[in-house]
Amino acid sequence: xxxxxxxxPEGLTRLQAALEREQARRDEARRVVQEQMEANxxxxxxxxxxxxxxxxxxxxxxxxxxxxxRAVLLAPNGGTPGQAALGSQVRLLHVDLGRExxxxxxxxxxxxxxxxEHGAALVSSESPVGRAxxxxxxxxxxxxxxxxxxxxxxxxxxxx
Length: 160
What we know:
- By secondary structure, the protein is of the alpha/beta class.
- It has four helices and seven strands.
């Protein structure tokens, strides 16, 4: 059974755009492979590289099509109000540095699809910060263990 893939509307748009880019890349790679196959043997040294590019594009298209087929849009205000969940816009304070970090909590596939809007970083709910942030509210503090580094954060705001 395939797992549903929760996405924000923006994340769905980014995945669709990524698919379109990969399809264009695949079409260009097909054209280059065809040209190399039609060229004489002395000119077809780049055939293997073109075939590799084509194979890579086709594999990425398959991944994106699978993700889009499993996409389930997150409902606005689908979680508990004021509690960090997938799709939440969050402002964190890096306590040790005194620096604010705007972010959006998203699925891993959405975080990999490209940059977020409004200057907020896309943070996967499967990352160390994302896992620690799930369920937190404004005012909560937490520590993320990153191996040699332990970072303390305070949740400043959570918006659905």
